[in-house]
Amino acid sequence: MGRYERREGELPPGQRLQRGWPVTHYGPVPRFKPDRWEFRVFGATADGDKTCWNHADFSALPYDTVVADFHCVTKFSMLGIEWGGVATSTVVKLAPPAADVTHVMVWAEYGFSSNLRIEDFLDDQSLFATHKGGQPLTAEHGFPVRLIVPGLYAWKGPKWVRGVEYMTADRRGFWEERGYHNIGDAWSEQRYSYQEEPGEGPEI
Ligand SMILES: Nc1nc2c(c(=O)[nH]1)N[C@H]1C(S)=C(S)[C@@H](COP(=O)(O)O)O[C@H]1N2
Ligand SMILES: [Mo]
């Protein structure tokens, strides 16, 4: 797929190292309401049903950790961060997609969304992170759950995730509709939608 291979611990083209951990997002930080929160898996599921986990259920799912790099399209990167949470493969195992699912839309609070190819979503390092460096995420960094997909720019990983929609055709998410690349592979420097080649994204 990409022109470059992913190389852990190195900077993708055009990126620079960042000290500290800046907060980057559009809109306000949502307030976590534990009694109203649920994580929903819906759309083209294998059995046509939805799966909903409340916060206690979601917190009880198998916990995995990955060490991964983080690349923001505004050109800062952080390397070697330890994330903990629920592997995307765990979600897919417990709430399987239909056989013809090709993409997912990951939904967050306030309708923020990002679309991913199923193979990017199921990268063996993709994780619904609840923790960073062993500590629960803070509110501004996405508590209780954010998605981490190490090879893609970080906008492909929504903070404050509330659900996954299985899709049998691609559709653009929030930033993908607003000028950012439909795939967003950091190693291929897929920053903006004008760089898309035919077949890399649906019409805008
Ligand atoms: N819900 C939501 N998630 C989001 C964003 C956003 O605007 N809304 N911005 C993305 C972008 S562009 C980046 S770089 C990272 C930043 O994560 P951080 O604030 O924890 O560093 O969150 C991503 N997730
Ligand atoms: Mo970003």
From TrEMBL:
Pfam families from the UniProt entry: Oxidored_molyb
Residue ranges constituting the Oxidoreductase molybdopterin-binding domain according to the UniProt record: 27-175
InterPro entries (alphabetical): OxRdtase_Mopterin-bd_dom, OxRdtase_Mopterin-bd_sf
Full protein name: DMSO/TMAO reductase YedYZ, molybdopterin-dependent catalytic subunit
Organism, scientific name: Actinacidiphila paucisporea
Lineage: Bacteria, Bacillati, Actinomycetota, Actinomycetes, Kitasatosporales
